[in-house]
Amino acid sequence: MATEPVGGPASPPDRPLWLAPDGWSIEILDQTRLPHQVVVQRLGTLDQVVEAIVTMQVRGAPLIGITAAYGLCMALMTDDSDMALTDAADSLLGSRPTAVNLSHAVHAVRDAALGARPGGRVEAAYVMAATLAQREVDACRSIGTHGLGLLRELSQGRRRAVQILTHCNAGWLATLRYGTALAPVYRAVEEQLPVHVWVDETRPRNQGWLTAWELEAGGVPHTVISDTMAAHLLQRHEVDIVIVGTDRTTRAGDVCNKIGTLSLALAARDAGVPFYAAVPSSSIDWSLDDWRAIPLEERGEEEVRWIRGVDATGLRREVSPGGTASQVRNLAFDVTPSRLLTGLITERGICPATREGLSECFPGLEPIDPSTR
């Protein structure tokens, strides 16, 4: 894949993915190069899209789904037969197992193509991919508006900025616009409501630094902390609210998110700090009641064994913080049971993290198992 530097961190593009000028391929911000260098990658084949998802050049559940949607469109341009469509969908579905958005998006594009008129599969697929992208933007904006209400309530009677703790990156880099967990923050800035964000590093991928990069570009006051410091801040009541994203939320309200989220929820419960997950409908798995059935991605040990960064001279380097004899395990996600959540912030409003709460927000939705569609 060709790379092309496009400016620097002080003036980034305003979204992580867009349709290329040719009208059929996509261009992405290579998130493995952030926050030190802004690099655009053009993806023009199914294999390139799968590689970008697996290697986390694109990351964040909503963005993974939209990327996969366009990947299926590109595959159809090469071969729009039923067999090729199934094979391409299977390839994408195997790229990242935890984020349910990927499955929802791939099946939506596949169904649109299968229902198209003869010779119209490619066009129908691209229309659906664009529709899904706009739905994500609209959902994130609505999540931000509903979450803004919580921040307004917390600001009443306070002389300091509302203190928000977040984990991993659930901003516009992980979606298309606004983000999920960061959407209320960006809406607060628009409304000139004073906020400050505590940003977990989120080892081993250090995705908290992507959150910091976003917030710096947006002029949002923030402080980066080590993951292990968060419980201390919660205990000392230096945090008013915790808001995290989600890669898959069960219909019972259990939230699967970046590893370390469960620890935060336990600490927040003990400290009496409200703990919310920002949940677009594309991240809800209506087929699952039992969180134990969520497939938890286990990534390679090299992510723990090696730390990647830029040295004092500006060169990108990898260094090993430890020895090579020890065994390493690298689970990428954990699950926070619904009982530990204060509520879910969805595009349709804020609801309890329960089956009944989600049903009230999304009435009439029958449980769907994406794998059986």
Sheet of most strands: 7 strands, mixed
**Overall tally of domains:** 2
The ordered H/E elements are: EEEEHHHHHEHEHEHEEEHEEHEEEEEH
Low-confidence stretches are 1-11, 369-373
- Strands in their spatial order, largest beta sheet: 7-6-5-8-11-16-17
Determine the N-to-C terminus distance.
33 Å
- Helix-strand makeup class: alpha/beta
Gross morphology is: globular
Q: What is the averaged pLDDT score?
A: 92
Just give the CATH class of the largest domain: Alpha Beta
Give the number of DSSP strands: 17
Summarize the structure.
This protein is α/β, with parallel strands linked by helices and 373 residues long. It has two domains: 3-134, Four Helix Bundle (Hemerythrin (Met), subunit A) (Up-down Bundle); 150-372, Rossmann fold (3-Layer(aba) Sandwich). The protein has eleven helices and 17 strands.
Describe this structure in words.
The chain has 373 residues and is of the alpha/beta class. It is 36% helix and 18% strand. Helix 1 (46-54) packs antiparallel against helix 2 (61-78), helix 2 (61-78) runs antiparallel to helix 5 (121-155) and helix 5 (121-155) packs across helix 6. The protein is globular, with a radius of gyration of 20 Å. The protein starts with a strand and ends in a 12-residue tail after the last helix. Mean pLDDT is 92; it is low at 1-11 and 369-373.
